[in-house]
Write a structure and sequence with these properties.
Elements: H1 3-25, H2 27-35, H3 39-59, H4 63-86, H5 91-113
């Protein structure tokens, strides 16, 4: 594994862990789930993000877990992007979901090639 690949995995993993933590520490995150009309799925979404983040790290040692985690996070961000498009959020507001979808799709692609 090269340094760029490991850096991508670390950026994605720690970003999702930070985002998940903010769900429990900031009212903003729960308000966003309400705005998305996804209050009931908020906790599940955060659990999936935490599992994905840890899965990326463990996946550095076990490729199948890396594939599941990066693929799962890419799909999760695709769904998040679709919600933002449905709500007519601006491109600027939607960029993080687009970025992390692309980053995790890239990790998934590189992991397949390993």
């Amino acid at each position: 594994m090269n340094n760029l690949f490991i850096t991508c995995v670390l950026i994605s993993s720690f970003s999702f862990l930070a985002y998940a933590t903010s769900y429990f520490t900031s009212p903003h995150m729960k308000n966003e789930m309400k705005r998305f009309k996804l209050e009931k799925l908020g906790f599940l979404t955060i659990v999936l993000e935490i599992l994905g983040a840890f899965g990326l790290l463990v996946g550095l040692l076990f490729k199948p877990i890396l594939l599941i985690s990066s693929g799962g996070l890419a799909v999760l961000m695709l769904l998040g992007l679709m919600v933002r498009i449905k709500l007519k959020d601006s491109l600027l507001v939607s960029l993080p979901a687009l970025f992390y979808m692309g980053l995790n799709a890239y990790i998934f692609y590189l992991a397949i090639k390993l």
